[in-house]
Amino acid sequence: MGFIKRENKKFDYKPRYYQGEGNPYEIKQKFDQYRTTIGKKKNLKGKFNAALDDLKESGYRFNKTIVIIALILTLIFLFIIDFDLSIFFPKK
């Protein structure tokens, strides 16, 4: 009884009214066609170098709003822990 191997049942569903090619249920990401870090099987160093190349091509831009929010949150945190900001200013 233990020597008979059961095969998995295969289920091949085809939609009745689908006229196109390919699998209609295939899930693709929205921007995969524009990314260079996916697709080919690369090692970690290759993915990292491709990501750096993309960063150099697109230019490095930062969002001013996020920087301002981060500074405000940092100051609030320093106020909560009673950090003395006078160490950054010269004594008179």
Which helices and strands, and how do they pair?
Layout: H1 44-58, H2 64-80
Shape: elongated
Total number of β-strand segments?
Answer: 0
Head-to-tail CA distance between termini: 92 Å
Q: What Rg is obtained from the alpha carbons, in whole angstroms?
A: 28 Å
The portion of residues forming beta strands comes to: under 5%
What structural category characterises the helix and strand content? Answer: mainly alpha
What's the number of helices? 2
Helix percentage range: 25-40%
Instruction: Give a quick account of the main beta sheet: strands, pairing sense, barrel closure.
Output: none
Enumerate the spans where pLDDT stays under 50 for 5 or more consecutive residues.
none
Quick check: average pLDDT?
Answer: 78
| SSE run | HH
Folded structure, characterized:
This protein has 92 residues and is mainly alpha-helical. Helix content is 35%, strand content 0%. The protein contains 2 helices and no strands. It has helices at residues 44-58, 64-80. The longest helix has 17 residues, at 64-80. It is elongated, with a radius of gyration of 28 Å. The mean pLDDT is 78.
Précis, in short:
The chain has helices spanning 44-58, 64-80. It has 92 residues and is mostly helical.
Give structural attributes.
elongated, 35% helix, mainly alpha, 92 residues, single chain, 0% strand
